[in-house]
Amino acid sequence: MTSLTPTLSASSNGTLLEVKNLRTHFRTRDGVVKAVDGVSFSIPDGKTLGVVGESGCGKSITALSIMRLIERPGRIVEGEISLSGKNLVTATDEEIRDIRGNAISMIFQEPMTSLNPVFTCGDQIAETVALHAHVSDKEAMERAIEMLDAVGIPDARRRASEYPHQLSGGMRQRVMIAMALSTNPSLLIADEPTTALDVTIQAQILELMKALRDRNKMAIMLITHDLGVVAEMADEIVVMYAGKVVEKSDAITVYERPHHPYSKGLLASIPRLGEHRKRLEVISGVVPNPLNLPEGCLFKRRCPYAMPICDTAPPLQQVAPNQLSRCWLTPDGSAPAVGPDASGDIALDAAAKLSVES
Ligand SMILES: Nc1ncnc2c1ncn2[C@@H]1O[C@H](COP(=O)(O)OP(=O)(O)O)[C@@H](O)[C@H]1O
Ligand code: SF4
Ligand SMILES: [Mg+2]
């Protein structure tokens, strides 16, 4: 594929995107919703980060913060987001528009709302191409057809002249991917790109994203509530719960040896081939109301391991060489050395000693 626009290259240490202590809050009439509350992660050039968690954990708001698409009453109240060293939080609107259309592309959760029903699929992709490259209308349309073909749409030339409602859900999602990739981004943010699709189409879309990632050498931030989906595709995984990162590790480790009880619960809810479980184990209870979060560990009301010390916020601690977990349990899953009933300054001191966060 030829590059239409210059993409930002990775910074010298290979980190393309770095998010540090991001806090995005919504000031509502009933109180402050801390949708994203101190989230940090990075994505190296060409790698895939999976972001996992149940609905309402702050995945989309994290993505929209990176794209600087947070609308009032929401606001990034703290933190840094840097793309190849460029701070996106303080960038001007013009700079952000340029980055959004070139270096970063996003596939949104609802494809239908992102496609315009009154324009043909070809016109919509051609318009994106034309916005970002100095090409004639005819060249832009040829490029759009090429993109539709690349994402596996049969008879792309004919399909280009069709309107979104004439296509199936899977085809529409492919059009969205074609549009997102038409600017040859360094980073693709895919927010639950396959949630609305049936399993066969889901597998096809994921295969397609993998192939395009390898061909274009782009980085992907893949958001999903399905740990099984990311385990297959991602290099690293971030598990989010109630606006915080609760576990971060390489994909294989979190899949084979999750530490955080929430990650364990998410994994236990995945049906695995060859296992004949009568009923899938699921995490009891629901994600807490963001306006009524528990003191201490945000997961404690649902956690089968909860102990009195969990009334104090647990540290994000290193539990294996490339694995961090926001939980009081020791790396081998025992109660903390300071004792399961520790409280007050003793618990706070222990948390400060174990924490990898400064
Ligand atoms: N406009 C808004 N006003 C108030 N709260 C919001 C708004 N948008 C999102 N939130 C809250 O932010 C939290 C995270 O939402 P979101 O990032 O969409 O979750 P996810 O994508 O993980 O399902 C949720 O508690 C949600 O209710
Ligand atoms: S800190 Fe306590 S409540 Fe929270 S996940 Fe760990 S064991 Fe469970
Ligand atoms: Mg979402």
> What oligomeric assembly is this protein in?
single chain
Report strand %. 15-25%
> How is the biggest beta sheet arranged?
8 strands, mixed
Low-confidence stretches: 1-12
Order of helices and strands: EEEHEEHEHHHHHEHEHEEHHEEH
Number of strands: 12
The count of helical stretches stands at 12
What does this structure look like?
The strands form two sheets. The chain has an eight-stranded mixed beta sheet, sandwiched between helices. β7 (187-191), α8 (199-216) and β8 (219-224) form a beta-alpha-beta unit. The chain is built from twelve helices and twelve strands. The chain has helices at 59-66, 93-101, 111-114, 121-132, 137-150, 156-159, 169-181, 199-216, 227-233, 251-256, 261-268, 344-354, and strands at residues 15-28, 31-44, 48-52, 74-83, 86-87, 104-107, 187-191, 219-224, 236-241, 244-250, 316-320, 323-326. It is of the alpha/beta class and 358 residues long. It is elongated, with a radius of gyration of 22 Å. It is 32% helix and 23% strand. It binds adenosine-5'-diphosphate, iron/sulfur cluster and magnesium ion.
Describe this structure in a few short sentences.
32% of the residues lie in helices and 23% in strands.
Please specify the SSE layout and strand pairing.
Blueprint (H helix, E strand, L loop, with lengths): L14 E14 L2 E14 L3 E5 L6 H8 L7 E10 L2 E2 L5 H9 L2 E4 L3 H4 L6 H12 L4 H14 L5 H4 L9 H13 L5 E5 L7 H18 L2 E6 L2 H7 L2 E6 L2 E7 H6 L4 H8 L47 E5 L2 E4 L17 H11 L4
Parallel strand pairs: 3-8, 3-9, 6-7, 7-8
Antiparallel strand pairs: 1-2, 1-4, 4-5, 9-10, 10-12, 11-12
Helix pairs in contact: 4-5, 5-7, 7-8
